[in-house]
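Supplementary Methods S3. Input chains for the assembly prediction are listed below.
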Amino acid sequence: MKELPKRYDPHEAEPRWQKMWEDEGIYEIVPDEDSYTIDTPPPTVSGRMHIGHTSSYAQEDFYARFWRMKTGNVFYPFGTDDNGLPTERLVEKTKKVSSTKMSRKEFRELCHFTIKELLPEFVEDWKRIGMSCDFKTVYSTIDSNSQKISQHSFIDLYKKGLVHRKETPVAWCMTCQTAIAQAEFENKDLTSTFNDVIFKAGDEELIISTTRPEFIPACVALAAHPDDERYTHLKGKRITIPLYDYKVPVIFDKEVAIDKGTGLMMICTFGDKDDVEKWHRYNLDLRIIFTKDGKLNELAGDLEGLSIIDARKKILDTLKEKGHLVKQQPITHPVNVHERCGTGIEFLKSTQWFVKVLENKNKLLAAGKKINWHPAYMQVRYEHWVENLNWDWCISRQRYFGVPFPVWYDKRTGEPVIADESQLPVDPFVDKPKSVPESDWKHLVPEEDVMDTWATSSVTPQIALAMHGKQDLIPMSLRPQAHDIIRTWAFYTIVKSLFSKETIPWKDIAISGFVTDPKGHKMSKSKGNVVSPQDVMDKFSADSIRFWAAGAKLGDDIPYMEKDLVTGNKTLTKLWNASKFVIMNLDDYKGFNAKFEDLELMDRWILSKFNRLVKSSTDAFSAYDHSKVKFDVEQFFWNDFCDNYLEIVKGRLYDPKDTIEKTSAQYALSQVIEGILKLFAPIMPFITEEIYAMLPFENKTKSIHISSWPDFRKEWVDSEAELVGEDIVKAVQEVRKYKSANQLSMNAPVSMLRVLSEQDLTLAENDLIAVTKAESFDHELGEFKVDIE
RNA sequence: GGGCCCGUAGUUUAGUGGCUAUAACGUCGCCUUUACACGGCGAAGGUCCCCGGUUCGAGUCCGGGCGGGCCCACCA
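Predicted structure tokens for the full assembly:
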């Protein structure tokens, strides 16, 4: 008999197969109209793969592999998102430089250099978990192709009047010193102090509670609720601002909460979003007290040049000194901070580029309905985000490492000059617009801002397809992503696709959940409950981590528990051993030429059950329900196939002669083992590949992953075999129970076995006798019952 | 405050109106049986969060609670 390795070593096998797939180009295709196309999320080089990545990328890879086997035509690109602030921050940190202290050119070059340096090792993690992307054609969101497409998209929207430049109050990060978009806000509970400050209306003293006393010089009005009788008499009066001694009006607005603080509030330009709205609505004065680096300016008087924090301390001291501060009490309140750096968001008036999303909410909502969301309820999140948008999408950033706007300004008029589409990509610092004659170049100044990173990652379908010149294949088939970036990546991609191509970007969107710790808490460095996927793969294997990831449904969070990885490893071992057993027993198998009906009953039983598994697994994968596939295939493999079928046919297989009964079993074994490997292949691509390579069959493909997915076979539907087979298995279980209760080994003979059954068990009586070691067997028709002696 | 999701053995979970409610891990007992002791067989373990309703029939559908998670809003 054939000797096979006793153990499977994933640490040896996995890199070997990964290399083979890449060397042989197993996953390389040029996409066409029939391709299943995937808009792969490009990870950000600014960090290593974390365990949340592992599960969600594993899950999307299940679908890539399933559809590849089903259709033979899957376009699964890979890219990295190297654009924008995350990379800038990484470079500043690792290279110990400051973007503001070097030239734009130098800093941009250092960013490019750093990415090149990090990329190869970074991508290794994605290869290691068995992503079946084409790693030979890889994009970066900052490469020249991406810049070209991103700029092209900008020009397209500009020409359609969907992007415009406007001076307006905009959310601003003092640390990153750039405008930011609504989607980049994050909530944080911060401790602060409520300060009761005296304002004066003539001789009357009014108390205002504020957490932001440094905004006093920016106060342009006081506001109260129109029904608040404490303040209605102030109508038409002008209030004196303490320390600064200028006067502001009182406005009455229903949005003011009567019970908050003293019911009287400052309107400042601009303390928050509400201030911006009220400033517009009541046409108030503008008193901007910040410069763009977060220092106070001359309007703040004594506070000029101080940071916000220092200014707050100083003004509180002065207020106290002059008797204007009557009370202080600590509070905790939610504050909007910039998600990239955690700095509190301020509002500044500045000129920025905006994409007009607000006036297109209805179209965006309609587009969301045309996409199939998995799970379906995730669509609601998208809808709520769109419905509640308050601002147009600000796409300009006062940063360095991003895709430049293809824009210059004419110094004489201030009007923008847009690049010609044929000259993209352009860097306005280096290039000149085609439309302007050389003699007028001296009048041009380049746009200094760069685009927001999302302005480019929102065209990943175009970027990925453009690598093959197939941009017309939008909508793509699938967008896989996590739920935290529905409001950014999913939303912005829909915006871009709808605005420039009048279509949805993809037909299906699969939203993965997060990985939590065993108690269901989010993993975070500060909690110290982070698990590194690299360590997990060292200890277990890529296949076992994928097997674990397959257990979570789309959209569901999944707790990381090491015991699940142990289970995964056990499944690998079981698959290895069962396959080894089957392959050994196929040693003398020369094929089976008879019809399905001529097979032994138990062989038809396992094939019929397998056939149903094929159907349910195909349906489940098609419906984006990978966890059902995992559950069902695992059950079938371990329970039906290993514990029952293999035990039952051992008697026939051990016959040294080539009997027809043995050949029948060998036929079933060969069909089922290959089928199980194929059904498991999307989830555990390495071990299934390893075993597939050992199968003693002809007509195998070079890789199981480009073999065909099993077909449902009508001729294998055999309800009689299934009914009889189930009773045979039940009878076997009764005998096992008897032996267990009597402390007998499973090999121990029983002298008498009598089974009552509605089915004709004589059809498989030899198998039943062999597996139970019954010395005599009796079968009668009747309600199921087993007697053993 | 608004919205979405989820409450099933000790734990993680299957279950989209119909047998005695899944399975894995854990616990306990047994079995060294020529694929596998990283195994096999078996046992114990459940008020399917609570209350009401619809139905011949509800873990499943509807209403109302309670509890947990997430998203959004709340920033004076």
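The CA atoms of residues 244 and 301 of chain A lie 8 Å apart. The longest strand of chain A covers residues 185-201.
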